[in-house]
Amino acid sequence: MQTERIKLTYDALVIGGGIAGGEAALNLANNGYKVLVVEKSLSVGGKMIMLSKVFPTLDCSACITTPKVSEISRHPNIKIFTESDIESIEKLGEHNFVAKVTRRPRYVVEEDCTACQLCEEACPVIVKDQFQYGLVGRKAAYIPFSICSPKVAAIDIDNCTLCGACEKVCPPGCIDFTMKAKQYEISVKTAIVATGFELFDPSTVKRYSYQEGKNVITSMQMERLLAPTRPFHTILRPSDGKVPDKIAYVLCAGSRDDSMGNPICSQICCMYSIKQAQLLMGALPMADITIYYIDIRAFGKGYDEFYEQAVSMGVRLVKGKIGKISEKENGNLVLRYEDVSTGKLKEAEHDFVVLSVGAKPNEEPQSLFKTQKLELDNLKYVKQSDPLLSPAKTTIEGVFVAGAATGPKDIPDSILSAGCASTEAISYLNS
Amino acid sequence: MSRLDTKFGKKLKKYGATEFNRCYNCGTCTAVCSLTNSEDSFPRSMVRLSAAGDQNGIESSLKPWLCYYCGECSTSCPQTANPGELMMSLRRWLTGRYDWTGLSGLFYRSSLVTIIAMVLVFAGVIGYAAYESFDMERIMHTAHYFEMFAIMGVFAVILLPNIVRMWYLTVIKPGYKLPVKVYASSMSELFIHMFTQKRALGCDDNQARWFAHLILVIGYLTLLFTTVFLDWFSTESMFVVVLGYVVSAIVFAVTFVFVLGRIKQKQEIAKHSRPSDWFFIIWLLLMGITAFAVRLFIDLDLLAGNLWLFLFHFTILAQWALIIVPFGKWTHFLYRSFAMYFDKLQKSK
Question: Is residue B174 left, alpha or beta, with left meaning phi > 0 and alpha meaning psi from -120 to 50?
Answer without folding.
Answer: alpha
